[in-house]
């Protein structure tokens, strides 16, 4: 038994539809023909139209000179006799012959209709098989590409040509999915390579410190203490990196604990916590906080805000500024953080949301701060844009879908105090 492929199903569908519609059409034609054959027209009017005798006063001799039935045989003459009253033998013979001829014609017509229907059904099935194969050829191309694609050749595309129909749309969608997978795999490989490098560096430092200490049997207590402090500092750095990597992995998706969140309250709390650190770094912190409500996971949003403000202070200059604004408009909640600092190339600035991207190897941190910000924003169906003003520093804008919350929307006393300060 052949496999029940979609091509076979389409072919059977074509054949069945043609068989049913052809049978209905031929049945209607057969009924119309039978109706016309069995109809009993006005015989006298028909004879008169043909110029034949229609009354008892007219000649009934079929062999009279000029007769329409001269030499035509007896049946036509019998039909032309005009004395067709009830029980007439001539009329009886005529009707019997007429009925026999009609039955024979209908029988032949039925046989011919059946044979024609079967022949055309076979032709339609063969044509349907060819048309289905031609119509499904793009699906075979998509299937073949899907079988060939693996993590090593994600750059392959279907690139289907032809009209913009459903199959072309499916192929283009598949190509788009391959592009996204290719980008995701490339990003993953880049991430793993950078993470391995960042983790290898502190391990190499700790191994070197321990090897130096162990190689010197006469090492003093101060030297061992110095070695221990270096190892401890390296361990702390490794813990910070691992924590950042875990946060980045966690921020890829919301865990399902979404709730209404007053983004302005979270920003106000974070600004209060970091104000002392900003003053220590000689950075002027300014806040303009307006109501901004979102729906999401509070802990991730707090980490996003903390990363933005931390970057704004860490990568600033003495006497620089750090501005924080929140607000809502057109169904979107926005958080904008701008800071002073060195002049940055706009193209380099746009790359800072990628993992392990730093302005230079000497820049403090691991290059994961803005990556976490972008991941959190995208997990909340938002976006992040990074600009590099000509005056220096960065301007990061986070846009999230605005949410409605049962609590009162307003500016708290803490927010008003921060806005005035």
**Low-confidence spans: pLDDT under 50, at least 5 residues?**
58-87, 406-421
Distance between the termini: 83 Å
Annotated CATH topology of the largest domain: Heat Shock Protein 90
Radius of gyration: 46 Å
Q: Give the rounded overall mean pLDDT.
A: 77
CATH architecture call of the largest domain: 2-Layer Sandwich
The DSSP helix count reads 12
What structural category characterises the helix and strand content?
A: alpha+beta
Oligomer: single chain
The strand count comes to 7
Indicate the CATH class of the largest domain.
Alpha Beta
Strand order of the largest sheet: 2-4-5-7-6
How would you portray this structure in words?
Helices cover 58% and strands 10% of the residues. With 421 residues, it is an alpha+beta fold. It has a five-stranded mixed sheet with strand order 2-4-5-7-6. The chain has a two-stranded antiparallel ribbon with strand order 1-3. The longest helix has 50 residues.
Give a brief rundown of this model.
With about 425 residues, the protein is α+β, with helices and mostly antiparallel strands. The protein has helices at about 5-40, 45-50, 75-80, 90-135, 135-150, 165-215, 220-250, 265-280, 300-315, 345-350, 370-380, 415-420; strands at about 260, 285-290, 295, 320-330, 330-340, 385, 395-400.
Secondary structure layout:
Blueprint (H helix, E strand, L loop, with lengths): L5 H33 L4 H8 L23 H7 L8 H47 L1 H12 L17 H50 L5 H30 L8 E4 H18 L3 E6 L3 E4 L1 H17 L6 E9 L2 E8 L6 H5 L18 H11 L3 E5 L6 E8 L11 H8 L1
Parallel strand pairs: 2-4
Antiparallel strand pairs: 1-3, 4-5, 5-7, 6-7
């Amino acid at each position: 038994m052949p496999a029940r492929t979609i091509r076979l199903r389409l072919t059977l569908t074509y054949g069945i539809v043609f068989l049913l519609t052809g049978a209905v059409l031929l049945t209607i034609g057969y009924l119309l023909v039978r109706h016309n054959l069995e109809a009993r027209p006005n015989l006298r009017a028909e004879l008169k139209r043909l110029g034949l005798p229609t009354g008892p006063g007219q000649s009934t001799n079929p062999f009279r000179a000029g007769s329409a039935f001269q030499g035509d045989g007896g049946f036509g003459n019998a039909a032309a006799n005009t004395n067709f009253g009830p029980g007439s033998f001539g009329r009886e013979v005529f009707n019997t012959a007429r009925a026999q001829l009609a039955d024979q014609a209908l029988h032949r017509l039925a046989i011919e209709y059946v044979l024609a229907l079967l022949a055309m059904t076979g032709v339609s099935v063969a044509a349907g098989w060819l048309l289905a194969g031609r119509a499904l050829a793009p699906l075979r191309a998509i299937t073949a590409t899907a079988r060939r694609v693996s993590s090593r050749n994600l750059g392959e595309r279907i690139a289907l040509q032809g009209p913009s129909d459903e199959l072309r749309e499916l192929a283009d969608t598949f190509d788009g999915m391959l592009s996204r997978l290719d980008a995701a795999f490339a990003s993953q490989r880049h991430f793993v390579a950078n993470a391995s490098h960042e983790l290898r560096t502190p391990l190499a430092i700790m191994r070197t410190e321990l090897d130096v200490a162990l190689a010197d049997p006469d090492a003093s207590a101060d030297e061992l203490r110095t070695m221990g402090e270096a190892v401890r500092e390296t361990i702390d750095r490794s813990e910070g990196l691992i924590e950042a990597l875990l946060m980045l992995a966690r921020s890829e998706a919301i865990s399902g604990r979404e709730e209404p969140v007053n983004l302005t309250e979270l920003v106000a709390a974070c600004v209060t916590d970091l104000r002392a650190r900003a003053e220590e770094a000689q950075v002027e912190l300014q806040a303009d906080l307006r109501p901004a409500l979102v729906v999401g996971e509070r802990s991730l949003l707090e980490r996003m805000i903390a990363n933005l403000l931390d970057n704004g202070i860490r990568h600033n200059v003495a006497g620089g500024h750090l501005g924080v604004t929140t607000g809502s408009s057109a169904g979107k909640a926005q958080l904008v953080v701008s800071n002073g600092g060195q002049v940055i190339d706009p193209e380099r600035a746009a790359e800072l949301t990628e993992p392990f991207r730093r302005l230079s190897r000497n820049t403090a941190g691991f290059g994961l701060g803005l990556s976490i910000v972008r991941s959190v924003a995208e997990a909340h169906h938002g976006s992040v844009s990074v600009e590099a003003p000509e005056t220096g520093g960065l301007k990061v804008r986070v846009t999230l879908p605005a949410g409605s919350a049962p609590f009162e929307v307003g500016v708290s006393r803490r927010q008003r105090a921060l806005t005035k300060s």
